Recover the amino acids of this structure.
């Protein structure tokens, strides 16, 4: 047997060991060059085939080709192993370390309070109604018995918009009371609704005022409705919301769309913590007959009451917040407390 045939097996073993020993992809490429590259040792062996005798050549050629195939598959296998290793993290993973927590989002405190107020009213059979924030003069004032020369308009002076070609000026609604009119225009009595929503006034921001704030309006229309129903309802909702030790007080007041009218004061351990015995939280009253006339309800048949609460005020009492502006700054240090 020629020396060439004798060389094949040891060369194969050496090549396989070399490929297996390559510790990264660079070393593997180098090993590939050493054995099967154009100047590799197996290639050199193939070049010697010509020097063999005619009888020896076929067997030797076959043997070399088999080795070449073996080396190529060993090369592919090692390459796959090394690629997998390269894709893995350099440092070992400690599976006992605590995971990275994703913080859960929450509802804004004003949304939470609004939802809770609505939930309390739902228990009494109130439905939620909605209306536009961009209102016309008529629904915001006139239909609520507040004509253009009425002094109450001054106290709610607001943001007017001038749409081209419109005679009736539009404005950002100053209160949710406009939705009372929109609902009564659309449906006959009886009515039992609450209307949470955003309102706008030309106020300067300070600890208790903001040009944008939120109200929840209520309207109840039926036969034989009394101030007693109003008081009972308000008391039920506030006890439900803020605890059974709250106290409610009605003070006579004036609103052009109710007669008689009241302001509602609220007292609880929470208000006393804020240094106040009583805090004003709402306006309310028995719906003025003129308002019923305007929407086409017969004031001889129908009676009702309405109210408007400030949602921020209730949230401030509930959480002991002393500056209304905190609600609008979106500071996570504040928001994450609720
Ligand atoms: N709209 C009044 C305000 O913004 C609050 C109010 C008072 C609403 C009396 C009412 C009501 O429905 O009957 O100050």
């Amino acid at each position: 047997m020629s020396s060439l045939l004798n060389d094949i097996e040891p060369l194969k073993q050496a090549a396989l060991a070399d490929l297996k020993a390559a510790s990264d992809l660079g070393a593997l490429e180098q090993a590939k060059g050493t054995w099967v590259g154009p100047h590799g040792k197996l290639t050199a062996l193939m070049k010697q085939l010509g020097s063999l005798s005619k009888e020896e050549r076929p067997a030797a050629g076959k043997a070399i080709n088999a080795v070449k195939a073996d080396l190529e598959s060993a090369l592919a296998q090692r390459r796959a192993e090394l690629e997998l290793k390269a894709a893995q993290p350099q440092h070992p993973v400690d599976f006992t370390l605590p995971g990275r927590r994703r913080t859960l989002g929450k509802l804004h405190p004003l949304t939470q309070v609004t939802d809770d107020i609505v939930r309390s009213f739902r228990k009494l059979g109130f439905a939620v109604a909605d209306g536009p924030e961009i209102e016309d003069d008529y629904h915001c004032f006139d239909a609520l018995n507040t004509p253009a020369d009425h002094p109450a308009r001054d106290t709610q002076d607001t943001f007017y918009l001038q749409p081209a070609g419109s005679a009736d000026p539009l404005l950002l609604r100053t209160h949710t009371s406009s939705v009372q009119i929109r609902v009564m225009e659309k449906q006959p009595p009886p009515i039992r609704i609450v209307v949470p929503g955003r309102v706008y006034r030309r106020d300067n921001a300070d600890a208790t005022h903001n040009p944008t704030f939120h109200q929840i309006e209520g309207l109840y229309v039926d036969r034989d409705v009394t101030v007693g129903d109003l008081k009972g309802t308000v008391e039920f909702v506030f006890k439900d919301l803020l605890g059974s030790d709250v106290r409610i007080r009605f003070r006579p007041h004036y609103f052009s769309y109710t007669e008689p009218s009241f302001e509602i004061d609220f007292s609880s351990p929470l208000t006393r913590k804020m240094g106040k015995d009583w805090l004003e939280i709402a306006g309310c009253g028995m719906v003025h007959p003129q308002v019923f006339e305007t929407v086409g309800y017969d004031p001889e048949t129908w009676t009702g009451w309405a109210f408007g609460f400030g949602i921020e005020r209730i949230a401030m009492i509930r959480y002991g917040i002393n500056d209304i502006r905190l609600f609008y700054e979106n500071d996570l240090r504040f928001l994450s407390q609720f």
In short: The first helix runs from residue 3 to 21. Residues 175, 177, 217, 255, 257-258, 283-285, 306-308 surround 3,4-dihydroxyphenylalanine (CB under 6 Å). The two ends are 90 Å apart (CA to CA). Residues 109-335 form a domain with the BirA Bifunctional Protein; domain 2 fold (CATH 3.30.930.10).
